[in-house]
Amino acid sequence: MAKAKTDDDTVADGTADAAQSDGSTLGYEQARDELIEVVRSLEAGGTTLEESLALWERGEALAKVCRRWLDGARARLDAALAEEAEEDEGEGAAG
User: Fold this and answer.
1) pTM given for the model
2) CA 22 centroid distance within chain
3) CB of 6 closer than 8 Å to CB of 29
4) Phi and psi angles of residue 24, each rounded to the nearest 5 degrees, phi first
5) Is the separation of the CB atoms in 23 and 64 below 8 Å?
6) C-alpha–C-alpha distance, residues 82 and 26, integer Å
7) Is 13 helix (H, G, I), strand (E, B) or coil?
8) 41 contacts 55 by C-beta, under 8 angstroms
9) I want to staple 31 with a disulfide (CB 3.0 to 4.6 A). Which of 26, 42, 51, 74 is the partner?
């Protein structure tokens, strides 16, 4: 596979990173920022079909990482809200 010669070779050549680690080591902000760069690269054009496909695949992997983080955050919020509601119900019944 040809490697794109850009200032940000990690974006153009970064499909292996997401596939190897499955994104488990990336934080939300890091994945989001890299995804933004991937989108910018795709929108700018000037890449070969192969490079564009590699960028697309990297973007999909990064989007999944972001989605996992957001789903986890939503679950934590829902649990905290449910716990708070239970405490409020308990106080209302006791008072």
Assistant:
1) 0.66
2) 11
3) no
4) -65, -20
5) yes
6) 29
7) coil
8) yes
9) 26
